[in-house]
Design goal:
Number of helices: 6
CATH superfamily: Mannitol-specific EII, Chain A
Mean pLDDT: 93
CATH architecture: 3-Layer(aba) Sandwich
Oligomer: single chain
CATH class: Alpha Beta
Radius of gyration: 14 Å
CATH topology: Mannitol-specific EII, Chain A
Order of helices and strands: HEHHEEEEEHHH
Number of strands: 6
Distance between the termini: 11 Å
Length: 148
Amino acid sequence: MKISTLITEDSVFSQVNCNSKKSALEKISISAATKLNLDPQILFNELIAREKIGSTAVGSGVAIPHIKIPSSLPATGIFLQCTNSIDYNAFDGNNVDILFAIFVPEDRCKEYLSTLATISEKLLDKTLLRQLRSAKNDKVLFQYLQCN
């Protein structure tokens, strides 16, 4: 699964004001709930529960929060570029300013794991990270992500 198959223009957000992990996950939950026609509180609770297992920060200021959703729903991604970095309890000690949340149907677990690995690898590319951090609007940010 490619990044471009998970996101649409209305699921990519640049210059988002996030002052904590909680506020970032709330914004992600609201956006995903709208796309998936689900209760945002349920998605938020699932994202928080996943973070309690271990931080989804992958290093270099990037986090990939992820949860499973009902099999009847499509795999969906929500991308946030935060205006300021936030404490995310990352293993490398760095704050996070790039979040790519992934919502994958329960019946696609194997694909789900390889998708996480692929997205992590791409988002840790220094050139792409520079581009993502420099994007000043949603459209430009979406274009950078479409190329990967």
